[in-house]
Amino acid sequence: MKILVTGGLGFIGSHTVVELQNQGFEVVIVDNLSNTSLNVLDGIANITGINTAFENLDLREKEKVQDFFKRHRDISGVIHFAASKAVGESVGNPLLYYENNLNTLIYLLQELQQQPESNFIFSSSCTVYGQAEKIPITEDASIQTAMSPYGNTKQIGEEIITDTAKVTNTNAILLRYFNPIGAHPTAEIGELPIGVPQNLVPFITQTGLGLRQELSVYGDDYPTPDGTAVRDYIHVVDLAKAHVIALKRLLDKKNLAKVETFNLGTGTGSSVLEVICAFEKVSGQKLPYKIVGRREGDVTSAYANTDKANNVLGWKAESTLEQAMESAWKWEQKIRS
Ligand code: WQD
């Protein structure tokens, strides 16, 4: 079975390609290399021994998307990662986000209508919940008004898919990620933030290596046990495995509805200070940090109720926060060596 993975050279995409190949799927990756590097293909090959078919394709170019599907008439499923994902950037450049995250989705779905079957896995985000009223968060929690154009593109993307599935042959699973962290245990692939990392864990590992002077902790006056914000940090390999399970669910036609939604998290909340502590434990070194003001747009707490993913999807995250931090640290040291 041939599976198209868009954004397959990205952080979560590359780990998912590895897990797909571990399960015997044939993969074709499209990526426009705007936020990654071709070296990731080598990393994947070093893990699986497979030189993955790759096409440098910008999904914003409709004719090129049409041409791709003319040449690939045997796509059994699509896992769609390709999107811009920096919350802060999206506030300053909304049209880039609406074009890149929505036009591309529309062109993909249009072309899939010509394929023998249309099984679609969508990379969504817990961002759609904003600050949920009830924690841990279930899939039927209300969708809050998006706090950024990025978050809005995930909400609108889910609606586009849902409306399309109602009247076409498309079957879809929406996967709402919490906070993906870590790297493949081989340290052959991992997160490659470009510039100053916006996310907590790569900033911690870069600080640990001395690339950053100190970590700024955005606020310690939240109504949480230690005052710092709480998130659900999930190992990227656990997340990748969930995608393969979700895809098989669609391919085996086990889905109970045309569109199903699952929260992908560990079900455990960890504060910023707890993440720092986990890093210090696995690295054996103190992390220099200072407490500063809250970051605009941050929620107090977000972690998943994983009952549906555990019981319906049959998936459960296996790695601990420390194991994820250890893999992130090993990766950081490897790429800077
Ligand atoms: C985590 C916590 C920060 C950096 C983002 C995206 C979301 C999803 C997951 C894609 C927060 C604190 C961070 C720093 C800090 N991605 N922090 N100092 O914001 O929860 O979610 O990743 O779908 O869409 O928004 O992740 O890693 O930026 O922040 O104190 O230098 O760490 O305030 O509490 P976030 P994050």
UniProtKB/TrEMBL annotation:
Q: In which pathway does it act?
A: Carbohydrate metabolism; galactose metabolism
- Its top-level enzyme class, in one word, is isomerase
Q: Record's SUPFAM superfamilies?
A: NAD(P)-binding Rossmann-fold domains
Cofactor(s) annotated in UniProt: NAD(+)
Q: Recall the GO molecular function terms of this protein's record.
A: UDP-glucose 4-epimerase activity
List its EC numbers: 5.1.3.2
Matching entries from InterPro entries are given as: NAD(P)-bd_dom, NAD(P)-bd_dom_sf, UDP_G4E
Taxonomically, the superkingdom here is Bacteria
Catalysed reaction, written as an equation: UDP-alpha-D-glucose = UDP-alpha-D-galactose
* Signal sequence annotation: none
The family annotation for this protein states:
Belongs to the NAD(P)-dependent epimerase/dehydratase family.
What binding partners and quaternary form does the record give? Homodimer.
Protein name (Swiss-Prot/TrEMBL): UDP-glucose 4-epimerase
